[in-house]
Design a protein that fits this description.
This is DNA-binding protein. There is one protein chain. By secondary structure, the protein is mainly α. The protein has one domain (8-87): Orthogonal Bundle (Multidrug-efflux Transporter Regulator, Chain: A, Domain 2), CATH 1.10.1660. The chain is 55% helix and 9% strand. The protein has a 3-stranded antiparallel β-sheet with strand order 1-3-2. β2 (65-66) and β3 form a beta hairpin. α1 (8-30) runs antiparallel to α2.
């Protein structure tokens, strides 16, 4: 059996990428990935933000949102994906 040694920083980056992929796959598979809108639970799972941080981002205009019923807030998927692309250390810029 071969053994590979890597730095802890590189290992963390790899693990973060795997975690990101796992979260993305879970969200995409829950609604077949075709939905234009995401609910709060999906956004939190995909971004790792807490509810309070998500509220602050919404107030700051980071995410476009809608509430047809006045209760359940939905977020545009493209805004969430854009946020992840801008703020992820996992994606080469």
């Amino acid at each position: 059996m071969s053994q590979i040694t890597i730095e802890s920083k590189a290992f963390k980056i790899i693990m973060d990428k795997l975690d990101y992929l796992e979260k993305t796959i879970k969200v995409m598979s829950s609604n077949n990935g075709f939905s234009k809108w995401m609910d709060e639970t999906e956004v939190i799972a995909m971004t790792g933000l807490c509810k309070r941080s998500l509220l602050e981002k919404r107030k700051a205009g980071v995410f476009n949102w809608s509430s047809a019923t006045g209760r359940k807030i939905k977020y545009l998927r493209k805004d969430v994906e854009g946020y992840l692309n801008r703020n992820s250390t996992l994606i080469a810029k």
